[in-house]
């Protein structure tokens, strides 16, 4: 099937869609919309979009499984790097603005506060994946090892949802919605693995 | 210092409440008590009698200045009235200012119940009007580690309680927020168990700091801040300051409180501001004052230790959090 849009156009379109939340935040900031507690606003905003972009990146393979589309897979690296960008901004806001480089407080948070421990775990995974997202790393690690390492993106997704779920006070609906989407995406992959196994058996 | 403040209250009250009017009110209280049996009649009557109460957002007059002033800059009105935790109007802090916009709090009845000599259904003005309105500038510390300084207007809770004549069995005061999902859309979701309930030990309620607030910044309370009447207990985390109160009852046993019921290991009955006792999920050592960049150290009892620390002598505050 001939694509409606060329790969290059699709890539740039997706790139700007992913940049949307960041551009919107700048617009909100310039129109005075950050509210009474801008640091908290930015923190929540970046956290929300980090998890959402991760879910977007994680939907590439399920879209291929369900609809046979291959173009999302080709965008996956860029999508994943956007997720990493939002996570980095989320954590930069926490370290540099919220805690103002109070590394003692940050260390205590990481050790004592489960949701921060879990969040940092997700950040470490995504950093590793971002650092090995280039062709040189694939070559260096070998395709198999690289693929195995990059499967940890699902762990990052689970940790991200856990982090979100365990920081809210009472309204667990938004984190549960994100977790449900993640479960759906994971479920499709698991279903696909079993389907392929069964195909092998029957053939 | 406290003694001086008390004196100023007494003087002010004599200034504004002629004896004749005071007696009329006593009379009304009696009829009010009788009217409980007879339904809403008492309420309607009292509403006519005190129709002069200003509408929401109106200027409050005859407000006495008190020396309750931390000497810190008050948080601007637009921030106090747009950054609110009021789950009855949504769980986002910018939800209530929109969702509560058309909330009508007039007329407003407050049921007084339990261990007291004057139970009944009162128009809220009748609970407030016999007492001197005071402006008190209090620090406000949220359990989420942000804080504000708010110039509240209200009456001493202790004075109101005294007039209701609690019996010797009254060991606690329980409060309840309006439960009306049509007017409070946040109640359509069971994020918390509705209605919102709160409580104080009697000696906490009788502490001079405890305020029944009806306004801020010189005007009646905006709906998102708990119109028309709310509790302010500045040495406790903000969630103790129950909003839009429709019931006050005197009880012999510790009443349930909403956040404690929702997560008992995270929110206790006392909820005193304490930098040394962490919330299980975050530290309470510091707070960010709204409008400021750097965090500041949180003070024990939110800086009101001189006034309230003695209420808790001998208690393990890490256990009774």
Task: State the low-pLDDT regions of chain B, or none.
Answer: 1-23, 28-51
| Topology order of chain B in helix (H) and strand (E) letters | HHHEHHEEHEEHEEHEEEEHEEH
Largest sheet geometry of chain A: none
The N- to C-terminal Cα distance of chain A equals: 28 Å
Tally of domains of chain B: 1
The assigned CATH architecture of chain B is Alpha-Beta Complex
Number of helices of chain B: 10
Mean pLDDT of chain A: 93
Helix content of chain B: 10-25%
* Separate helix tally of chain A: 10
Span between termini of chain B? 28 Å
CATH 4th-level superfamily of chain B? Oxidoreductase, molybdopterin-binding domain
Most extensive chain interface and residues per partner: A-B, 21 and 28 residues
CATH topology grouping of chain B: Sulfite Oxidase, Chain A, domain 2
Q: Please estimate the helix content of chain A.
A: over 70%
Instruction: Please state the structural category of chain A.
Output: mainly alpha
β-strand percent of chain A reads under 5%
| Proportion of beta-strand residues of chain B | 15-25%
Radius of gyration of chain A: 19 Å
Describe this structure in words.
The complex is a heterodimer of chains A (203) and B (321). By secondary structure, chain A is mostly helical. Chain A has one domain. In chain A, 82% of the residues lie in helices and 0% in strands. Chain A contains 10 helices and no strands. In chain A, helix 3 crosses helix 10 and helix 5 crosses helix 6. The model of chain A has no long low-confidence stretch (mean pLDDT 93). Chain B has one domain: Alpha-Beta Complex (Sulfite Oxidase, Chain A, domain 2). Chain B contains 10 helices and 13 strands. The longest helix of chain B has 19 residues. Chain B is globular and about 45 Å long. The two termini of chain B are 28 Å apart. Chain B has 321 residues and is of the alpha+beta class. In chain B, strands 1, 4, 5, 8, 9, 10, 12 and 13 form an 8-stranded mixed sheet that branches. In chain B, helix 2 runs antiparallel to helix 3. In chain B, a hairpin with a 5-residue loop joins strand 2 and strand 3.
